[in-house]
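Hello again,

I reread your note about wanting to compare the complex against the isolated chains. To keep things tidy I'm splitting this into two emails, and this first one only covers the full assembly. Below are the input lines as submitted, including protein chains and any nucleic acid or small-molecule components. They are followed by the predicted structure of everything together. The single-chain runs will come separately.
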Amino acid sequence: MAVIAKQEDDSKQDGLILTADGMSLKKSLARSLRMQKLRALMLILPLLAFILITFIAPITDMLFRSVENQIVRETLPRTLNELQYWDLSQKKAPGETVFHALYDDLEIAIERKVHTRLGTRLNYEQTGFSSLFRRTGRNLDAIGKIWQKQFEEFDPFWKKGENWANLLMTSDWINNAKEWEKTSDHLQPPFVLKPELVNLLPKTTEAYSAFARYVQLEENEALYKKDPWPGIYIKLYQDLISEPDLSALSGMGADELRSTAQMVSTFETISFKDGFLEIDKDWGEIDIWRTIQVYASSYTSGYFLNAIDMQNGPDGPELRPENERIYIILFMRTLYMSLIITFFCIILGYPVAWLLVNIPTRKSNLLMILVLLPFWTSLLVRTSAWKVMLQQQGVINDILVWLGLVDDAARLVMINNQLGTIIAMTHILLPFMILPMYSVMQTIPPSYLRAAKSLGATNWTAFWRVYFPQTIPGIGAGSILVFILSIGYYITPAIVGGTSGVFISDRIAYHISSSLNWGLGAALGTILLGVVILLYFAYDKAVGIDNVKLGG
Amino acid sequence: MKFTITFLVSSALSLAGSIGFANEEGMADSMTVVSWGGAYQKSQQRAYSEPYAAKHDGLTVIWDESSAEAVAKLRAMNEAGNVTWDLVDAVAADAIRLCDEGLAMEINHDEMLAPGDDGSTATEDFGDLLVSDCFIPQIVYSTTFGYRTDLVGNTPPENVCAIFDLETYPGKRSLEKRPVNNMEWALLCDGVEKDNLYDVLATEEGQNQALAKLDTIKDNVVWWSAGADTPQLLADGEVVIGSTYNGRLFSVIEEQGQPVSMLWDAQVFDLDGWIIPTGLPEDRRARVVDFLRFATDTQRLADQAKFISYGPARASSAPLIGKHADLGIEMAPHMPTDPANAKNTILFNYEFWADYRDDIDAKFQAWLAR
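Full-complex prediction:
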């Protein structure tokens, strides 16, 4: 309200000029300006949306992936809960409670088939997790079956899922569930446990609830017929061994429960730890547990550490062993080779741009077509053509041998190394250097050079002191274009670069499409993005971004 | 790159028939199959999909040549909740990963696949080749060596260790730009027993030993990443000897008549086959299952060998292998599984590489970069 009052106030003060509809001119002007801005915004809206969807969103997603690590916590919540009490310094694998929790977590993870996904994730950090989880997935049932078998041998009642449902669920729910099965066209009635059993058998009912949720929501099968998982037998054993008072219990299965309760003390059991160690002795390794503990949090710096040749060691981040360091080398190589390529583009592009501006139009048009021609040819074709040219049995070597300049036995190695990458990429990126230079040179009046000369400058001085400084914005623009394009280049270095001429992009592609370590790929990409932004600001500080011109 | 083969029959009668057919069996009338492109995909089309489509009017089969990126793309599709592929051709290692990630459907082989012509069940017929619950093997291929007959003098190589023998066989050799297979060959030629290969390779010393052996020829290696590289390098005379898939070499030797010969010693067997993505709608899955039952039966697997020199995955198909469809030569001697070729073989160790892939690859790439 205060704002409106003030506006009215304003209009009163300079309210001398009014428009035809009695509004103050200031207001009217502001409105029409606002309309104009809105209209302008509407015009760029498609572009804005396009950039947002195809550029900003994927980049944000990538940034997020490089730190995201929810899978460990989501798959092993109970284990991590127990694991926080484990003391690494004791140099001993965790105790029974952790293994018990691990059994509970894995039983449901295996049903959901996410345990192998977790294994893949952790295998990025430590070799062996992949097969550890796969093997455990295949054999975990063996542990629960020890209990299950004894229950079932004592009383066949425990064999059938229907009996379990009758024992644990309210009769109303059973009726509803049977009704549902006849039609099964709507959602299953959510399970309802008998309240008195929740108190008497807390662990069993809790485990059964998890089982029920999975069966109802994820499998969408008839719960009351489904045989429970072996783990639920373990929980029932644990509930019964603590001797709950079952005397008041009535209804279906109550008698069987009471008779079994008297027998459970004779049941054979094994420790979970022994069970896991029998499946795979690696579960006794401290390193396995340390890795799980280190990667317990939902967000991790692990991928970024990896991307700069480091890892999470026992005492915080540390360098990787020397024979595994690769990313720093590749980052440095990407940067310095891009610089070399940019440099060669300037050296080669400058005279061409100068010619384009200074020769007669008819000839310069032809030259322009030659400059633009590579744009109309597929990148792959151009790169492969370089292969044909440069290889040892290739065109250039053949000519040199034929001319007698090079011995047949000592043909030049010009491809599958850094030289190959530099040659091919300089060629491919050259137009990006020539075009901005050309458009800047075009705006320099030839009379400047003539004036300098008439005032007594030599050719060189006239060029160096008068002409060249005016072309710097073009060089700047071309350099930024070429440099930024080249540090992200993938296909050309991959084809002609061999091993010594590949860039960091090669590893990013490998992690995205081959090793599937998207987190690491994302971290590498993020670092590359950061480097570009950093260099851009450094350039701005040194040369000034206002001095960059693409034309005019 | 996609191309579509449409089998449309023009008459209204068959149109009505096809609609009736689609409704009757509850199957989708189009199917997107992902494979590797090239001669291999062609062999699948001629042996599997063309005969199948001839029997099913109105079916459209769309081929997508994306198998090389199948795992990454399927994962992306799955995350986006829109799986557009119905059937994917993948090497066994990828199939295992897809299965691990929950991206491939688990299948009951005996229930879903036809029994062998010799009366064996599908499980018996495929035998040890059923390396994953999600995987239906199709062919056995091998990664092995080809050499230029004109560049090896009078002593053509008979042993895989020729690649490390720079004195007898000077010149470049091409190896794949990844540790798999190369590490095994290096150890084998450094005196490690074949049975101990993976035990040795699992240790830090073993990995260093393999890299040290590779180091002796590092300057003379052209590293390839696409299966077509080595055949091209051999044809150009850029390399003396190089590793690639045996079917590629067959085409260089028999179809293009280049002066190249096979070195079968220590070939590494691997499998290629089908997986069905998870989360397909009922009608599309029904179509794929129906197609697979046909395309993986004894006769069809044997038929594929008419077009490409990869061994059928069913034991019962082996006796049915005939002559090449276009060249008219007997195909059996060109199969990696032929007894004469399979005297000394290594079977790709899936479990080992699933575990050690990341670790050894980091070391291998660091070694390459040095």
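For quick reference: The longest strand of chain B covers residues 260-275.

B.
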